[in-house]
TrEMBL record, chain A:
The modification Phosphohistidine is found at residue 44. SMART domains: CheW (SM00260), H-kinase_dim (SM01231), HATPase_c (SM00387), HPT (SM00073), REC (SM00448). It comes from Rhizosaccharibacter radicis. Residues 1-101 form the HPt domain. Residues 421-560 form the CheW-like domain. The modification 4-aspartylphosphate is found at residue 771. Residues 213-419 form the Histidine kinase domain. SUPFAM superfamilies: ATPase domain of HSP90 chaperone/DNA topoisomerase II/histidine kinase (SSF55874), CheW-like (SSF50341), CheY-like (SSF52172), Histidine-containing phosphotransfer domain, HPT domain (SSF47226), Homodimeric domain of signal transducing histidine kinase (SSF47384). It is an enzyme of class 2 (transferase). This is histidine kinase.
TrEMBL record, chain B:
Residues 26-166 form the CheW-like domain. It comes from Rhizosaccharibacter radicis. This is Chemotaxis protein CheW. Residues 1-11 have a biased composition (Basic and acidic residues). InterPro entries: CheW, CheW-like_dom_sf, CheW-lke_dom. SMART domains: CheW. Residues 1-20 are annotated as: Disordered.
């Protein structure tokens, strides 16, 4: 295939995506002349180029479409939905021809006579004639498009595209092959290593006149590295572009009204990851439209607006991208899922009774599971969600579902930013270092030094007693057949990295943990590829080559049967849902500190020489903005070398917190012992077996950015008064600032009794946010009591919980249930509840 | 054949380029030593020669793999050529020299004792291996040149980089 044709194909693919969006816009706003000209221009370019390249079939079709568009543009043809439908059909035809071209280099056989005739008759016949005469023709061409709907209904059914960044930047971009980018990336990595050697050299030789130049070189290198990394990143919107069109067509075909709201389309992630999540995402959106959103009359009967909404959002969260797909449709019928799961033998009926709602909902990810009673053409072919889940897990991501019958479903997908770079735990063994992908490390424990954790032998096999569990143990040195170097007779203390492999867990005994590092995964050479224990190799920052361990390979190698058949536990359902991801860090001497990962927007390494002082405040140029920095107590504010910075973000305003080092991310169930004597820390928690100080984020951030928590009050929340009921000081401290920051008027009490007291004294609120577990009266009883009567009986009540209690909570009268620390979800749920109350 | 087989081979190398047109066929070799033995490998197969690279061993790897080397950001697997040829291991503390060769998409570094010079020799002078060589040398060598003062064993890179038989 020659270059001209290849360029044409990729350019046309882009134009087609743009055309889809533009046509849907036009359908909603038929008098949008600007969009109409854009459509005409794009079609015209396609026609012109294919004439030039000698593609007659394509040219004829594009020409016929162009004629219709020309008529619309000239005002001689109406912009009716029938007309737009015809043009969309023509675009489908073009897409079909182009995809054949891409595969074979030739146009497919055949002609598009029916379609062209329809286009021509629309162009000729309709001028001056009544619109309905063309409708049958349009319907026959467009497979099963219903007869032309009324214009008003159409606009309601059409999809909405927010974040419309489609304003073309063509002309300022060039096409570069991915190979070129990859090799550029390799060269830059080498440059970085050379730079590091320079810096190392400079540190040991004092007072060199090169200092200035080397530092400048160092800056430039970092910047270059960052920019080159950026070339691999693409906004997720590139994948989303196809969705509005798909939803529009689906809505037409199914006779539904669906609004697609997209948020965060500019969230960037690695090209390769983007490619891999494209199909799962599309599948899920179609699922939501097909199974989730009900028919308008069903919705009205259920007291909902006739049109459904699918919300798609993406955001960065600590090295991951979180994608949420939420609909306000019928939700998952837990009873039916359970029935089916029992019928399919996924669970015994005895065990089924003990499952929580979320555990039941996870069955939809089981292979071959589909509850769609009628298999529709759209989805529900029984190869749905399990494939989605597999695809997402293959790239190191995870998927969770939260659903409420009659209210809708929310899928949360968490995927790494890039596949090329993963976070890894560097462990030592027999004097050598190895990397373990952080994603499979559950926790790190030191048997013997922590109570309740011990290595024991069952027969000849070592096992780890970890709290309630017995884990099989593998000694890395034995597995790799390397013997420990004898260092003065003192054996290093055993450290156990607890790994999760396909739902099963095992402990890996190593000599010690060095660090966590972001590593670039490189494939191993052919000659070494047969060694199952390794998944790749990498070059560390100091230039040494180390092997990356493959947990799956290790499990196989050690004959640990992953996902033991007797284990009825749904794979990693429990682990993930009962805990909170805590970021473990070092700040000053003493015990490590921790804070919830979800509070942090990004983790950064910032060269200390980029930090400037403005008055008393440290500032740094960050992503084109000035970011104030604060150092946690005990961390020197001035130090050499790159600084680890946690970036918090609110309304696009970043604030950075300097710490000594970022150690790990540990999922943990948080139990905080209060220790109010040390300002800046909420107390102490046991995390990964160690006493850990929990950082009071708001204390530190308030110091540097006094207005950070008092951001502009959004109007809709201005008059809404909230009552927060939570016995834990820690959560009150986290929740209250978040809510007041969002513009609510927040009152906090520490017990259900105190809340009831306020009701009896006649205080009034617009909504209540309550913890579920509290000493004295718990949240469930509080909700029941409130619902029984009195002034607050109709108020929306939100449950905040760290465990799974969905069914019970809703039965007790809670309006919605939000997991602790899901800040965005809490805000969203609140505003949803409050707007419903207003509407009612 | 104008060439005097007893001419100084260094002079030969220097003027090889000038005379290459008048000769039937000749090829250039990088000469190197392994133990006491002078060896040669086709110059076109060698990408570069690195010295003093840090080798990190790879557990569970086949015996002829010495480990991995970081070659300016690329990971190169080092082959213990002495082991393959049945020579004793190098003395501790001696300099490590490696000739980097490519096989498929991978780079490999053949560990050698020292690298000497590039020689251009007529293809017709390549003689078959003496039959009394050890099995290792017969396997990894494809011929011998008789130089004025010593023998030059031509190493077969394909065979040195062949996939080891997988341990069961």
């Amino acid at each position: 295939m020659d270059d001209l044709l290849r360029d044409f194909i990729s350019e046309t693919a882009e134009s087609l995506a743009e055309l889809d969006l533009a046509l849907i816009r036009l359908e909603r706003h038929p008098d949008d002349n600007q969009t109409l000209s854009l459509i005409f221009r794009l079609m015209h370019t396609i026609k012109g180029t294919c004439g030039f390249l000698g593609l007659p079939r394509l040219e004829k079709l594009a020409h016929a479409a162009e004629t219709v568009l020309d008529g619309m543009r000239g005002g001689t043809l109406p912009v009716s939905s029938g007309g737009v439908g015809l043009i969309l059909s023509a675009i489908d035809g073009i897409r079909h021809i182009v995809s054949t071209l891409e595969r074979s280099g030739h146009e497919p056989e055949g002609a598009d006579a029916t379609l062209i005739t329809a286009l021509d008759s629309y162009a000729a016949g309709i001028t001056g004639a009544p619109a309905p005469s063309s409708a049958p023709a349009a319907a026959s061409v467009r497979m099963d498009r219903p007869p032309e709907p009324a214009a008003a209904e159409l606009s309601a059914a059409a999809t909405e595209v927010m974040d419309q960044t489609a304003t073309s930047v063509r002309g300022q971009t060039i096409r570069v092959s991915v190979d070129v980018l990859e090799s550029l990336m390799t060269v830059v990595s080498e440059l970085v290593l050379t730079r590091n050697q320079f810096l190392q050299h400079l540190r040991t030789s004092e007072g060199s006149d090169l200092t200035g130049s080397v530092q400048r070189l160092s800056h430039l290198t970092s910047e270059l590295q960052e920019r080159v990394m950026k070339t691999r990143m693409q906004p997720i919107g590139n994948v989303w572009n196809i969705l509005p069109r798909q939803i529009r067509d689906l809505a037409h075909d199914l006779g539904k009204r669906i609004d697609l709201v997209m948020r965060g389309a500019d969230t960037e992630l690695d090209r390769q990851v983007l490619e891999l999540i494209k199909d799962p995402l599309t599948h899920m959106i179609r699922n939501s439209a097909d199974h989730g959103i009900e028919l308008p009359d069903v919705r009205v009967a259920a007291g909902k607006a006739p049109g459904g909404t699918i919300r798609l959002s993406a955001r960065h969260e600590g090295g991951h991208v979180v994608i949420e797909i939420e609909d306000d449709g019928r939700g998952i019928d837990t009873a039916r899922v359970l029935e089916k799961a029992i019928a399919q033998g996924l669970v015994t009926s005895a065990r089924a009774a003990t499952l929580s709602e979320e555990e039941v909902q996870r069955f939809i990810f089981a292979p071959g599971f589909s509850t769609a009673s009628a298999v529709t053409a759209v989805s529900g072919r029984g190869v749905g969600m399990d494939v989605v889940r597999t695809n997402i897990e293959q790239i190191g991501g995870s998927i969770a579902v939260h659903s409420m019958l009659g209210r809708g479903s929310r899928f949360v997908i968490k995927i790494p930013l890039t596949l090329a770079i993963v976070s890894a735990l560097i462990v030592g063994c027999a004097g050598e270092r190895f990397a373990i992908p952080q994603a499979s490390v559950v926790e790190v424990v030191r048997p013997g030094m922590q109570a309740g954790i011990a290595i024991e032998n069952v027969g000849a096999q070592p096992v780890l007693r970890l709290r309630e569990e017995l884990l099989p143990l593998v000694r890395l040195a034995t597995l790799l057949e390397i013997e420990a170097v004898d260092v003065g007779g003192e054996r290093p203390t055993d450290t156990v990295a607890v790994l999760t492999v396909g739902g099963a867990r095992l402990g890996l005994i190593v000599d010690g943990i060095f660090d966590t590092e972001e590593i670039v995964v490189k494939p191993v050479n052919t000659m070494l590829r047969h060694i199952a224990a390794f998944g790749g190799n990498t070059i560390l920052e100091d230039g040494s080559v180390i092997m990356i361990l493959d947990p799956t390979g290790i499990a196989r190698h050690a004959r640990v049967e992953a996902a033991a058949a007797s284990d009825e536990r749904a794979p990693d359902a429990g682990d993930e849902d009962d805990s909170l991801d805590m970021l473990l860090l070092r700040a000053g001497p003493g015990a490590p500190c921790a804070l919830p990962l979800s509070l942090i927007a990004r983790l950064e390494s910032i060269p200390s020489d980029q930090i400037e002082l403005s008055g008393e405040t440290m500032m740094v140029q960050y992503r084109g903005k000035l970011m104030p920095l604060i150092a946690i107590e005990g961390v020197p504010s001035i130090a050499a070398g790159p600084r680890a910075v946690l970036v918090f973000e609110e309304d696009n305003r970043p604030v950075g917190m300097i710490v000594d080092a970022i150690l790990d991310v540990v999922p943990t169930s948080l139990k905080i012992e209060l220790r109010p004597d040390r300002p800046g820390f909420l107390g102490t928690a046991v995390i990964a077996g160690r006493a850990t100080d929990v950082v009071d984020t708001s204390f530190w951030l308030a110091r540097v950015a006094s207005d950070w928590f008092n951001r502009k009050t959004s109007q809709e929340n201005a008059r809404n008064r909230l009552l927060v009921v939570d016995d834990s000081r820690f959560f009150r401290q986290l929740v209250a600032p978040t809510l007041s920051a969002a513009g609510y008027d927040v009152t906090v009490v520490e017990s259900a009794e105190a809340a009831l007291g306020m009701r009896d004294r006649g205080r009034s609120f617009d909504a209540i946010v309550s913890d579920l577990e509290m000493p004295g009266m718990d949240g469930l009883t509080l909700a029941r009591t409130l619902r029984e009567g009195g002034q607050w009986s109709t108020l929306p009540i939100l449950a905040l919980t760290s465990r799974d209690a969905g069914r019970q909570a809703r039965e007790a009268g809670f309006t919605d249930i939000v997991r602790k620390f899901e800040r965005d979800k809490l805000l969203e749920s609140l505003s949803a509840c409050l707007s419903e109350t207003l509407a009612a | 054949m104008l060439r005097d087989p007893h001419a100084d081979h260094q002079a030969e190398a220097a003027t090889a380029a000038d005379r290459s047109l008048s000769r039937d066929r000749e090829s250039s070799y990088v000469t190197l030593t392994l133990g006491d033995q002078l060896c040669g490998v086709p110059v076109l197969r060698i990408r570069e020669v690195v010295t003093d690279a840090r080798i990190v061993r790879v557990p569970l790897a086949p015996a002829q793999i010495a480990g991995n080397i970081n070659l300016r950001g690329r990971i190169v697997t080092a082959i213990d050529t002495r082991y393959l040829l049945g020579l004793p291991p190098q003395e501790a503390g001696s300099r490590r020299v490696a000739a980097v060769a490519e096989r498929g998409a991978d780079l490999y570094a053949l560990l050698i004792d020292q690298v000497l010079e590039v020689l251009t020799l007529p293809d017709a002078d390549l003689e078959p291996l003496p039959i009394n060589l050890s099995a290792e040398w017969r396997k990894h060598s494809s011929g011998v040149f008789r130089l004025p003062d010593r023998l030059l064993m031509l190493l077969d890179i394909e065979s040195l980089l062949a996939m080891p038989a997988l341990a069961a």
